[in-house]
Amino acid sequence: MKKIIALNNDWVFCKEGVKETVNLPHTWNGLDGQGMNEGSYYRGACTYTRIIPRYEGITYLELKGANSVATVKINGRKVGTHEGGYSTFRFDISSFLSSPKNFLEITVDNSENKKVYPGFADFTFYGGLYREVNLITDVPETRFSLDDYGSKGVYVTAKTNGDVKVKAVISNYQKDVKVLYEVLDAEGKTVASAGDREKLHVDSPVLWEGMKNPYLYTLRATLKKGENLIDKVELRFGFRDIKFDAKEGCFLNGEYIKLKGVSRHQDRELIGNALTLAEHKEDLDLIKEMGANSIRLAHYQQAEEFYDLCDEMGFLVWAEIPVISRFSKAAQENALNQLEELIKQNMHHASIYAWGVQNEITITSENEALIEGIKELNAYAKLLDPARPTTCAQFTMCGLDSELNRITDILAYNHYFGWYMKTCDGLDEWLEKFHAANPDLKMGISEYGAEGVLGYFGDAPFQGDYSEGYQALYHEHYIRSINANKWIWGSYVWNMFDFGSAIRNEGGVKGRNNKGLVTFDRKTKKDSFWLYKAFWSDDKFVHLVGDRYPLRKIGAQTFKVYSNCDKVQIKVNNKQKTVTAEGVFVFEGMEIKAGENKITVTAGDIKETYIITGVEEYPREYSLPDDAKSMVRNWFVEKDSTKRDDCFSLDDTIGDLLKSEDILGMVGGAAGKLLRSPLMFAVKPFTLRQLLDLPIVNLNPEMVDMIEDYLGTISK
Ligand code: ADA
């Protein structure tokens, strides 16, 4: 029988000639990947070395995640290379363990690599051996394959009628080896078994019903020689069925369910992606506390234990590969490989309801090769797992009539109306147009969010002030619009947690995307966290918006409370008011006096008390520092205005714009079509701005602003 030996301690880590002893999980970008340096973060090759003993028989080396290209050598001989930073992979090292002490060297490289996704994205590509490394010893000659894309060599799918389908890849099968499949219920009782038939049946199975009842069964696959057990694989799975309808939304086991979701990156302040079970668990507890029932695990495969916990807790998970931002033909093979690893390693998880094949892949261009590439990925996902829908996260500018909207089974859009674009109303206008144009498409919202940096506070938050107050207003708008449109099957806040993005320097914070509902260290829940809790959770509470800011201006003030109670009362000094509402309770005209003020918020038997101080003016530190003030621009848009001066704008003529291939590829939808049409030759002397004003173009003003932003990224 196989034995797993953890190899997590006492590695000698070497970066640019400097050596230190480290334990895994480990990344070398925990600090510099989060803006804690001058300039950029280290992207290059580093080595991890240690001695391993000789093992008799078949021995594998298993790496649960190495970002992003890893080359393994033993005693100086190359064992193999793995490309892609987020999946499990293994090498058979039996023939390399030649002496009692063997020198194992793993080179991990996170430098830019055109052949490996992700190439360009708004998150830090932390380098390192950031998950466990194991030795698998005593591997039997005949075994469930350890060579099938990092999987356990056994695949299971189940239907709500009790049918279970198993597929096993067995290495070196010999006739005297007996295969046995069994299904065990949650108490460990065998409820179905079959010889080497790959079909089993469980009578009246208990369904996996998301958070209502995340009931899991175990498939046990064993290999026996005579009475000797030689190999065993156990996979937990659930009986469940998920369906999507373009008008009615999502159904889990035939019952309507709105997917109330958040996205999650796998990193944390100071430690980067080198996470342990405790951090994974804490993230999930926070997500659960807020009342979400779904998680988009953006933008890549996450830790096995995270999917396990999602199965147990009942979250519905969107899992995806890092095919993001910029399509690369050179990386297509790697994309297919990462997809196969993701699916083969995870297809037993009841929580995973869809495979995501791309995110915002059209931000720099939309062309034939890209469409074909995404079609190929989609078809491959369907081939590997016909039972699960495929999905994708479209860039806001992807045209309503784009062919890309009709590739995956379901789809979703990322929208930042009200953040990268001035007002939230753009969302409602877009939703209406989209649904009218595509009543048959099953559409969700894969991302939406606004920055909320702790410390900034004012009485009238506005777009671009980076305050939690504006972030909360933005989310108030979105959650209401999402709830008002039943046809939207689900949505994902971008993001549950602030995360590392070394390319960023925004809102006075370096190296971080501040769109989290909870801070990077997980210690502070921003106001928006409580807003979602008010709409999504049944666990009763009241939260005074801005309660961490102890100063208020003297005079009549408006207070806001988020709560999931029906009726909330506020008492400011001696004056009290009661409001009945859903989620958001607004109390106008509450008098604040100089000095100390006592505020009490009550709903039923819940009572919270706050002391605030009345002041003439808010201190300077309550607002964005002057040197951090600038227009909010999307993360991939050139922010340096002097550089932007050399770039195109809406005021360039069509004739000049048409000379640039980049521009032709970049402007999608109606405007793109228009640009490519022969009609353009007639209008060469006109500026793009004049053209976009034509009624036939019918773009909302926010989209026009965005086009201007993109043009500003292309040098003339
Ligand atoms: C994109 C992208 C995300 C995210 C977001 C943002 O939409 O898909 O990775 O970082 O931008 O915050 O701007």
Describe the structure.
- This protein is α+β, with helices and mostly antiparallel strands.
- It has four domains: 3-140, Galactose-binding domain-like (Jelly Rolls, Sandwich), CATH 2.60.120; 160-237, Immunoglobulin-like (Sandwich), CATH 2.60.40; 246-544, Glycosidases (TIM Barrel); 640-711, no CATH class.
- The strands form ten sheets. An eight-stranded parallel β-sheet has the order 29-28-27-26-25-24-23-30.
- The radius of gyration is 27 Å and the shape is globular.
- The model has no long low-confidence stretch (mean pLDDT 94).
- The protein binds alpha-D-galactopyranuronic acid (ADA).
- Alpha-D-galactopyranuronic acid binds next to loops.
Topology readout:
Layout: E1 3-6, E2 11-15, E3 18-22, E4 45-53, E5 58-63, E6 69-74, E7 77-83, E8 89-92, E9 101-109, E10 133-139, E11 143-144, E12 154-158, E13 163-168, E14 170-171, E15 177-184, E16 190-194, E17 199-201, E18 217-225, E19 228-237, E20 242-245, E21 249-252, E22 255-256, E23 259-263, H1 277-290, E24 294-297, H2 304-313, E25 316-320, H3 332-346, E26 352-359, H4 368-384, E27 390-394, E28 411-414, H5 425-437, E29 443-447, H6 468-484, E30 490-493, E31 499-506, E32 509-513, H7 527-536, E33 542-544, E34 551-553, E35 555-563, E36 567-572, E37 575-580, E38 583-592, E39 595-603, E40 606-615, H8 641-644, H9 654-658, H10 661-666, H11 669-676, H12 688-692, H13 701-711
Parallel strand pairs: 23-24, 23-30, 24-25, 25-26, 26-27, 27-28, 28-29, 34-40
Antiparallel strand pairs: 1-10, 2-3, 2-4, 4-9, 5-8, 5-10, 6-7, 6-9, 11-14, 12-13, 13-17, 15-16, 15-18, 18-19, 20-21, 21-22, 31-32, 33-35, 35-38, 36-37, 36-39, 39-40
Helix pairs in contact: 1-2, 3-4, 6-7
Alpha-D-galactopyranuronic acid (ADA) binds at residues 121-122, 299, 359-360, 414, 447, 494, 513, 515, 635.
